[in-house]
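can u do me a favor
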């Protein structure tokens, strides 16, 4: 049987080419790899910028579901999602046949409170702007280096900052303030995720700390969970990330061989959740996007070609 196809799902402020280092690892192992870029990443004009600000997590999931269907894959794919791509992988696992999902520092589904002191410091620049939930958002270079890229070298961090693109304020609000979202865009019924699950995270992640990601793994009895103590949020290409990438590719290889991955230990039950923060209005007045079909043309730039290493 041919190696399983892999679909890489990028996170916030990113595009498909952000995960090129993972693409290379999987392609070297013989897997066909697809790395779609989410719509309007980046927006090409003022109109697309306005549309991006109101784009929902559900709009992203609908786009990816359609994109994966259009690939015409002969086998169910393995979804590998980083950060926001992690919650999209969980949603898609309830919609389409998948061979497994690998979640790298994933955004939690509705029911798990996201805000912690360290990530509040890293993302305050977004939440302190009134109306952020209906506008595109970009972290300042200083906040990006503090929250996302602090484990990268200085030159690499500057390159990563330069590659960032605007992100949907609505999607951000649906993740952080899920308890005020009437549509529960990030809700994932755990019992509907029936495939093998791998959850990997960094011990120095300032955006989604390891204790938070542990709660994601705890939702799935079939999940394998591991913390890499020296890695941060950009854990797939930070110094010392070779072992993580090796284990990730090996796990997908185990799926190829028909071996169902089993957790090395039972994930401890999470402690009681902290109370939510003060409410913020999630449903702004004005035009709402009900479905991707009403958005017209998807504006997705093709991924950059990878230069040989």
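np, heres the sequence
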């Amino acid at each position: 049987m041919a190696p399983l196809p892999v679909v890489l799902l990028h996170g916030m402020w990113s595009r498909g080419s952000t995960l090129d280092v993972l693409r290379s690892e999987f392609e070297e192992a013989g897997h066909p790899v697809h790395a779609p870029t989410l719509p309007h990443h980046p927006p090409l004009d003022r109109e697309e910028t306005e549309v991006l600000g109101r784009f929902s997590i559900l709009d992203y999931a609908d786009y990816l579901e359609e994109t994966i269907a259009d690939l015409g894959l002969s086998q169910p794919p393995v979804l590998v999602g980083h950060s926001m791509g992690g919650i999209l992988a969980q949603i898609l696992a309830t919609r389409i046949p998948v061979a497994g999902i690998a979640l790298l520092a994933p955004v939690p589904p509705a029911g798990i409170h996201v805000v912690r002191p360290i990530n509040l410091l890293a993302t305050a620049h977004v939440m302190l702007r009134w109306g952020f939930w209906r506008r595109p958002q970009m972290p300042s270079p200083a906040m990006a280096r503090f929250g996302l890229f602090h484990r990268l070298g200085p030159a690499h961090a500057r390159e990563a900052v330069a590659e960032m693109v605007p992100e949907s304020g609505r999607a951000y609000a649906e993740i952080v303030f899920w308890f005020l979202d009437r549509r529960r865009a990030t809700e994932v019924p755990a019992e509907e995720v029936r495939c093998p699950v791998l959850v990997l995270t960094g011990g120095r992640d300032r955006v989604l700390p390891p204790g938070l990601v542990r709660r994601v793994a705890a939702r799935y009895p079939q999940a394998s969970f591991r913390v890499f103590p020296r890695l941060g949020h950009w854990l797939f290409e930070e110094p010392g990330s070779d072992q993580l990438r090796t284990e990730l590719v090996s796990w997908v290889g185990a799926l190829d061989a028909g071996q169902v991955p089993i957790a090395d230990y039972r994930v401890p039950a999470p402690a009681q959740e902290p109370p939510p923060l003060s409410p913020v209005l999630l449903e702004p007045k004005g035009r709402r996007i009900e479905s991707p079909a009403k958005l017209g043309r998807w504006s997705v730039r093709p991924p950059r070609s990878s230069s040989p290493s």
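The chain has one domain: 6-275. hope that helps!!
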